[in-house]
TrEMBL record:
The keyword Plastid does not apply. Keywords: DNA-binding, Transcription, Transcription regulation. InterPro entries: LTTR, LysR_HTH_N, LysR_subst-bd, WH-like_DNA-bd_sf, WH_DNA-bd_sf. Residues 5-62 form the HTH lysR-type domain. GO terms for molecular function: DNA binding; DNA-binding transcription factor activity. PANTHER family: HTH-TYPE TRANSCRIPTIONAL REGULATOR LRHA-RELATED, TRANSCRIPTIONAL REGULATOR. Signal peptide: none annotated. Pfam families: HTH_1, LysR_substrate. This is DNA-binding transcriptional regulator, LysR family.
Amino acid sequence: MSRYLDIAPLRSLVAVADCGGFQRAATVLHLSQGAVSQHVRRLESTLGRTLVEREGRGSRFTADGEALLLHARRLLTVHDETLDAFGMTTARTLSIGSTEHAAAQLLPSLTSSLTGTFPQHRIRFRIDRGTQLRTALQDGRIDVALLLGPAEDAEARTVGELRLAWYSAPQWRPPATGEPVPLVAIDAPCALRTRALETLAAHGLAAEVGSEAAHLAGVQAAVRAGLGVGLMATQGQCPEGLTERDDLPRPRPIALSVQPRRGLRPDLLTGTATALHKILLAQ
């Protein structure tokens, strides 16, 4: 029987603990769930101890499993530092999810900043709705999500604010007094949709969502067609074919927060949050 502890099984064990389960660990490690389970069984066979036990639909670490985790983290740190010292580090991936709002203005600068901060990581982006990004975080398919609104999770951080502005087609004119303002918005739930309705209501203006779209491109297309006004976060860069409106109530900026997946290295979250904070201050 082998009495050696291989690196790959140790990395799987740590991922199960950090990600909260075998399936999520498999997603983060780009392995099958069966492969991760086999890694843990190999460790158990080598040590002659039970490390992880089933508990309902989930699993929990035994006392021996918790003890091995401490040693595994130290071994992996030394292993990775040794590879770094000899220039043999395998490129890692930092996967960032972002809502569409202001992505064109923030992501190019963020890519440049993170590439310099984490040269051993490839930066990959996923653009999606906030709801889908939260699900991707839970499943371990992305590492960090850029979300509209203040930080709500204990590990999330608010990094700044996005300026909001009303946009319409050049030929669009406000409705007659007493008529509702026609809005174009992303399907609910949407933070900007809510902010648009609240802003108009706070100034005694009736509003009606007359056109909806699943994505920002659809909102901009409907606004460009003159179907109504849309509230967007463009950081001062007017979308092509649209014009900014100054005859509607000025909306308050909206907070931007970053939320990590469970078990993400703290320095990766801090580096991402710091980079975004600096980018927002400079705009």
